[in-house]
């Protein structure tokens, strides 16, 4: 990171490195946030989606006559009405993928419970519900398959005539011959069958959208919760509406969580835009929680055989993952990414594993589509490796800690060309591990275990080392606007859906230009104001928008130096800039006390007349940051927990996490991001179970049957930073949004297996609910 950006706590209260509270919080805590469902537009109509009650069947017809007679109903639409629009499909190229084209509404078959087959528009939400209940589909049920491995079996129900064996991709990466030779010559091989359980995303805010159409201009407007309006606009306009990009505006206000689920387009959005065009009025739809369980894209869902080959000293020779990946009934926007490239790039973790092979069969099933969920392959890859290490250490009689130390990439090996294809720029992995063990009082465990045993409890401890390859930042806008009210607005194409971008982005701008912190605003959610935008996902936002702000700031300095030279009647070469001057960034004549602050220069340019041609008339900048390589956040989680053998209930005693997130712009917010990821990891590990009946009905389709973590279920977390600045972006940051999951999954499950080892348990799958834990104990005891 350039010296000019280094934090100076004594001078920059709101600069990089300071724990500045989120600017968004006062508005949100006072209930003044504006979410999509808060919108009430003049003349607004309501939409309710009619969904298939069957998981698989021939759709012979839909009787809409009764629905059209319901008072207040103004339109009932089926697939025949939507024929002019394009299809939803995977937006991420993947070798050998048979891309499935999903229509906006099902027309020939239904393929999961919740598949949209029609929609009703009415004057009120109640009338729309009544109308939806009066729609009668004629469906002949077909056999159902909900598990990926079952979908691959001979004789399994076929979802598509042109997708034989339900297989949409047979993915392979790595040198199979060399990997096989490594396994054949290994002193020891560890093999585990692991389940990466399906997750219901459960965002705080259900999906909601409002569609508008202006007949005079032929232009659509979509208000929708998203992870980036620029990409959402382009995808919907080109692929679905089949109109030029400038004929669609996408607006996103506050968003109550997404974790990957709201990143792509959904059928409902096209339904709204079509109805708005046909009916000439805005049309609104807000899902209810039951609908969210049935129709939102789900996360995870992989069945994996993980293998690790080691030499006699416990050095890793190769890792091999063989998997079935459940795609759901259709392909999501990212398709099979998680179980293919996601596994391959992240199972390497921070170890010197020389060979990696990933083989994944991606299959369609009669379940909702699966998309990226907080980490998108990163937590999974780390989970597989850490579980293998613990099992291998036990089988070989080697300390698992020592095995990690022997295999860690050492500081003198950087830059390190990993077998995963990544090039690691730096890290201090043994130091991070040692710091975590010390903070967790690893050596005092035996005394605590004895105390637990005296109370009839089982105590276990677990390590979750992790390293994740973040998504590489793509082109990102860094726009700066100097307003007449004395404010400066950052315009960028990432999108805050709960993270709190405004504050760290403002800290970066405050650091680079000395703009007063309280005068900085942020615009992200309006596609009309963007010239580029990669959206938020893959823990890349600060790397992308932060770098765009740094580069845009440099352009502002160049413009302001020219303007200052003109205003101060000095040579441009004599103008110096101090972004940390008292009162804000200041341009002055070298060796004198004559100067102007940046905000004064911006104001004078707005008022100036007849400026020389070489002097800019504004400090405004539109800049696009090109791109940067991935970064590699890493760390170590250490968990101690207790198990009640009589009930199978798990209680956390302590949780320590040491993280290398590179330069930390706002430690308060980084710690909060880590907490959120950890809690979601705990939920997946111990609580969140999806369950389908034989005929594809979702048996855990409400919070009565699907458990998510509450405050009482999680411990306090000790957060420690061990920062090694990244060399791959101007700020030296590494990303932190998904790392909590990457460390918590293996740490929690390793601790649980350790606690149950007293009963001979060597592995237990996620989610390890109390029932599952109780059965594991009593089956072994019997």
Give the overall average pLDDT. Answer: 96
CATH architecture tag of the largest domain: 2-Layer Sandwich
Number of domains: 3
Give me the Rg, rounded: 28 Å
Structural class: alpha+beta
CATH fold descriptor of the largest domain: Aldehyde Oxidoreductase, domain 4
Count of helix runs:
19
Show the helix and strand layout.
Blueprint: H1 25-29, E1 45-51, E2 57-63, H2 65-68, E3 73-78, E4 109-110, E5 116-122, H3 125-133, E6 136-141, H4 148-151, E7 167-173, H5 176-184, E8 188-196, E9 208-214, E10 219-224, H6 229-241, E11 248-251, H7 267-279, E12 283-286, H8 289-295, E13 298-299, E14 302-310, E15 316-328, H9 338-346, E16 356-364, E17 370-371, H10 378-396, H11 400-407, E18 416-417, E19 423-424, H12 429-439, H13 445-454, E20 458-467, E21 476-477, E22 479-482, E23 488-491, H14 502-513, E24 520-523, H15 541-568, E25 575-578, E26 586-589, E27 595-597, H16 598-607, E28 624-625, E29 634-643, E30 650-660, H17 667-686, E31 718-721, H18 739-756, H19 770-781
Parallel strand pairs: 1-12, 10-11, 13-17, 15-16, 23-24, 30-31
Antiparallel strand pairs: 1-5, 2-4, 2-6, 3-5, 7-16, 8-14, 9-10, 9-12, 14-15, 18-19, 20-29, 21-28, 22-23, 25-26, 26-27, 29-30
Helix pairs in contact: 9-10, 10-18, 14-15, 15-16, 17-18
Organism: Teichococcus wenyumeiae
Protein name: Xanthine dehydrogenase family protein molybdopterin-binding subunit
Domain Aldehyde oxidase/xanthine dehydrogenase a/b hammerhead: 30-143
């Amino acid at each position: 990171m350039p010296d000019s950006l280094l934090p100076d706590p004594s001078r920059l209260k709101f600069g990089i490195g300071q724990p500045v509270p989120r600017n968004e919080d006062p508005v949100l805590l006072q209930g003044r946030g504006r979410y999509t469902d808060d919108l009430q537009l003049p003349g607004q109509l309501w939409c309710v989606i009619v969904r298939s009650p069957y998981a698989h069947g021939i759709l012979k017809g839909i009787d809409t006559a009764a629905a059209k007679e319901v008072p207040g109903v103004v339109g009932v639409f089926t697939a025949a009405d939507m024929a002019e629009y394009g299809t939803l499909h995977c937006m991420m190229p993947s070798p050998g993928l048979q891309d499935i084209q999903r229509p906006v509404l099902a027309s020939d078959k239904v393929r999961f419970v919740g598949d949209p087959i029609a929609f009703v528009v009415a004057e009120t939400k109640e009338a729309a519900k009544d109308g939806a209940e009066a729609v009668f589909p004629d469906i002949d049920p077909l056999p159902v398959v909900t598990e990926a491995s079952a979908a691959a079996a001979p004789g399994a129900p076929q979802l598509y005539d042109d997708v034989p064996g339900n297989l949409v991709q047979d993915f392979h990466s790595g040198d199979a011959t060399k990997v096989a030779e490594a396994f054949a010559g290994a002193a020891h091989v560890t093999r585990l069958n692991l389940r990466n359980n399906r997750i219901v995303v459960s965002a705080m805010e259900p999906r909601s959208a409002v569609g508008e159409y202006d007949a005079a201009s032929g232009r659509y407007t979509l208000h929708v919760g998203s992870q980036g309006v620029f990409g959402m606009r382009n995808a919907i306009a080109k692929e679905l509406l089949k109109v030029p990009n400038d004929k669609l505006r996408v607006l996103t206000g506050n968003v109550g969580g997404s974790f990957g689920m709201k990143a792509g387009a959904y059928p409902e959005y096209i339904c709204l835009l079509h109805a708005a065009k046909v009916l000439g009025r805005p049309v609104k739809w807000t899902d209810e929680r039951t609908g969210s369980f049935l129709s939102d894209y789900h996360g995870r869902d992989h069945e994996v055989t993980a293998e690790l080959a080691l030499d006699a000293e416990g050095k890793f020779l190769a890792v091999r993952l063989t998997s079935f990946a459940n795609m759901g009934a259709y392909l999501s926007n990212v398709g099979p990414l998680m179980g293919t490239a996601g596994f391959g790039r992240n199972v390497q973790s921070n170890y010197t594993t020389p060979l990696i092979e990933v083989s994944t069969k991606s299959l369609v099933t009669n379940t909702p589509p699966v998309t990226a969920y907080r980490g998108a392959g990163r937590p999974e890859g780390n989970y597989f490796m850490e579980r293998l290490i613990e099992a291998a250490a036990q089988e070989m009689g080697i300390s698992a800690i020592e095995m990690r130390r022997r295999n860690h990439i050492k500081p003198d090996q950087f830059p390190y060309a990993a077998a995963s294809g990544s090039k690691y720029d730096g890290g201090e992995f043994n130091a991070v591990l040692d710091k975590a063990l010390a903070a967790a009082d690893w050596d005092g465990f035996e005394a605590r275990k004895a105390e637990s045993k005296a109370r009839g409890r089982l105590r276990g401890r677990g390590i979750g080392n992790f390293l994740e390859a973040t998504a590489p930042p793509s082109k990102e806008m860094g726009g700066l606007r100097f307003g007449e009210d004395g404010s400066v607005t950052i315009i960028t194409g990432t999108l805050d859906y709960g993270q709190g971008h405004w504050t760290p982005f403002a800290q970066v701008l405050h650091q680079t230009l000395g703009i007063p912190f309280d005068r900085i605003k942020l615009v992200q959610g309006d596609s009309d104001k963007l010239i580029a935008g990669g959206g938020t996902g893959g823990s890349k936002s600060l790397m992308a928008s932060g770098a765009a702000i740094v580069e845009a700031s440099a352009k502002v300095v160049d413009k302001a130096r020219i303007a200052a030279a003109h205003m101060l009647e000095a040579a441009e070469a004599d103008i110096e800039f101090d972004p940390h001057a008292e009162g804000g960034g200041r341009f002055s004549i070298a060796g004198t006390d004559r100067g102007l602050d940046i905000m004064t220069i911006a104001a004078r340019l707005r008022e100036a007349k007849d400026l020389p041609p070489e002097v800019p008339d504004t400090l405004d900048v539109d800049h696009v940051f090109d791109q940067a390589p991935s970064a590699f956040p890493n760390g170590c989680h250490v968990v101690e927990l207790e198990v009640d053998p009589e009930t199978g209930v798990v209680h956390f005693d302590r949780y320590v996490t040491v993280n290398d997130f590179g330069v930390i712009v706002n430690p308060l917010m980084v710690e909060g991001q880590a907490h959120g990821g950890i809690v979601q990891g705990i939920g997946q590990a111990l609580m969140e179970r999806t369950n389908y009946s034989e005929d594809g009905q979702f048996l855990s389709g409400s919070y009565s049957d699907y458990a998510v973590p509450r405050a009482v279920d999680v411990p306090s977390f000790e957060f420690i930073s061990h920062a090694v600045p990244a060399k791959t972006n101007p700020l030296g940051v590494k990303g932190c949004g998904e790392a909590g999951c990457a460390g918590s999954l293996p740490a929690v499950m390793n601790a649980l297996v350790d606690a149950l080892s007293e009963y001979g348990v060597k592995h237990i799958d996620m989610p390890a609910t109390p029932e599952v834990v109780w059965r594991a104990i009593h089956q072994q005891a019997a």
